[in-house]
Design brief:
single chain, 8-stranded parallel β-sheet, binds zinc ion
Amino acid sequence: MEKRIDLHTHSIFSDGELLPSEIARRAQVLDHEAVAITDHVDASNINSVGNIINTVTDIRDNWDIEVIPGAEITHAPVEIIDKLARQARKLGAEIIVVHGETLVEPVLEGTNFTAVNCPEVDILAHPGLITMEEVEIARDNGIALEISSRRGHCLANGHVAKIAREIGAHLVMDTDTHAPQDLISYETAGKILTGAGVPDSEIHKILRSNPERILKKNGLK
Ligand SMILES: [Zn+2]
Ligand SMILES: [Zn+2]
């Protein structure tokens, strides 16, 4: 069985329940090759990106799993998303996620458009009813769109998968883990993609090749 790569999780440094070490350990037991810890940030707590660097270093040195420090820019004014992404990168974030226009939260309109135009962004998470134009820009800028296993955020998975496949934008499949039971196996991730209308022939690309591309681009593989 292939190994999982999950590039979107939350620890106690935002609204998650788990320490970074416990996320890593549970991910290791569920046969993950890599897990990114991408706590929510805006301008008030962007410096918290550094909180997990020591843990990441300890785990990289001692366990057979890649733990990646990241950040999820969340509910920020669209005018400062680009600035926050560059700051997070400077502070040591190796995966930059933007909290997209999910159907279940009042995310500011324009967040999807700004994120796909920001070269520092790796993944636009749960982008809800993203437009064709935004998906084309994401494709051209190499920004991945996320299929989510998270309750609520998953409601637009079918739309995101359909339009991204039509236009040729990269998809990834993340859990947006906040609690111990949220991490999933490769097999379960595949089933969720099937549920979103993705044909079997494209599942490996979404679960392995696309996240591997992001890791390579950021010097992590
Ligand atoms: Zn959260
Ligand atoms: Zn999240």
